[in-house]
C-alpha cells in the first residue's frame, strides 16, 4: 500500500461516526450520532441508532447527522435520517393571538359580570372566564396553541373578587390530541383560595393542546380564570 493510500484509509477511518448524548423534549434522552464531517439530515427514529459502526440506544428521539465529506480528505460516512430534538427554542410558546380556547361550561349571561367566555383567559385583561355553575368535577378548559409547543410552567390568575373560584382539584394534560382525557397526567393538585395557581413541571413537555380538568366539587362556587400564561425555560 502506498503512503497516499494509507493516508486516505486513515482519514476515512477518522471520518467515522461519533456518538454523544443530549437530553431534551420533556426529559427523553436524544442520541446524536455524526457520520464523517457531516451535515444534518431529516427524520426521527426510536430505539438503537448505528452509524459507521458506533451504536447508541435511546428511549426517546434520535438525531443522526447526514454523512458528508470526510475530514482530512477521507471518505464521507454513511448517511442517516435525522431531526433536531424539540426544545424550548425550537417549539416556542406562540403569541396569545393565535391561541384558541374552549371549555365544557361557560357563563354567557347578559352583562360584563356574567359574560365570561373561554377566550377571556388569554385577552390580557382583568376579564375572566367562568364555568357559570358550581364545581361538579366535570369541568374542563382547553387551549389549542395552533402548533407543537414546549411548556414548563403554567399560571392561572384569579381576580380578587373571585377568591373562592379556585379549582378544588385540577388535572393537567399536554398532548397532540384534542380533548385527550385519557392522556398522560402531567400535574395535579388543588388550588388555593384567592391565589394565582402556578404549576411548574419537572421538565418541558411538548404538545399542541393543553387540557385542564377540574375534578373536585364545591356546591356554591364556580371555577374561574382571569388570565392563563404558559412559558418554557
Features:
6-stranded antiparallel beta sheet; 3-stranded mixed beta sheet; Jelly Rolls; 1 helix
Report the strand count: 15
The CATH topology of the largest domain comes to Jelly Rolls
* Low-confidence sequence ranges: 2-81
Overall mean pLDDT stands at 76
Overall morphology: globular
Explain how this protein is built.
The protein has one helix and 15 strands, in the order H-E-E-E-E-E-E-E-E-E-E-E-E-E-E-E. By secondary structure, the chain is mainly β. The chain has two domains: 3-73, no CATH class; 96-231, Sandwich (Jelly Rolls), CATH 2.60.120. Strands 6, 10, 11, 12, 13 and 15 form a six-stranded antiparallel β-sheet that branches. A hairpin with a 2-residue loop joins strand 3 and strand 4 (54-58). The longest helix is centred in the first third of the chain and has 12 residues, at 3-14. The radius of gyration is 25 Å and the shape is globular. The termini are far apart.
Amino acid at each position: 500500500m502506498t503512503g497516499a493510500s494509507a493516508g486516505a484509509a486513515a482519514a476515512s477511518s477518522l471520518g467515522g461516526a461519533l456518538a454523544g448524548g443530549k437530553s431534551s423534549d420533556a426529559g427523553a434522552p436524544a442520541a446524536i450520532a455524526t457520520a464523517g464531517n457531516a451535515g444534518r439530515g431529516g427524520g426521527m427514529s426510536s430505539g438503537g441508532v448505528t452509524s459507521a459502526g458506533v451504536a447508541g440506544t435511546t428511549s426517546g428521539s434520535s438525531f443522526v447527522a447526514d454523512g458528508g465529506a470526510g475530514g482530512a480528505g477521507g471518505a464521507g460516512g454513511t448517511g442517516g435520517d435525522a431531526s433536531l430534538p424539540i426544545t424550548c427554542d425550537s417549539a416556542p410558546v406562540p403569541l396569545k393571538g393565535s391561541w384558541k380556547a374552549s371549555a365544557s361550561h361557560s357563563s354567557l349571561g347578559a352583562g360584563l359580570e356574567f359574560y365570561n367566555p373561554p377566550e377571556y383567559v388569554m385577552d390580557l385583561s382583568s376579564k375572566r372566564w367562568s364555568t357559570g355553575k358550581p364545581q361538579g368535577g366535570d369541568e374542563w378548559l382547553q387551549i389549542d396553541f395552533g402548533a407543537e409547543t414546549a411548556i414548563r410552567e403554567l399560571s392561572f390568575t384569579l381576580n380578587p373578587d373571585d377568591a373562592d373560584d379556585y379549582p378544588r382539584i385540577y388535572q393537567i394534560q399536554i398532548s397532540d390530541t384534542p380533548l385527550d382525557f385519557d392522556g398522560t397526567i402531567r400535574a395535579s393538585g388543588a388550588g388555593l383560595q384567592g391565589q394565582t395557581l402556578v404549576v411548574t413541571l419537572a421538565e418541558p413537555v411538548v404538545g399542541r393542546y393543553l387540557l385542564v380538568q377540574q375534578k373536585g366539587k364545591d356546591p356554591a362556587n364556580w371555577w374561574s380564570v382571569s388570565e392563563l400564561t404558559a412559558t418554557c425555560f
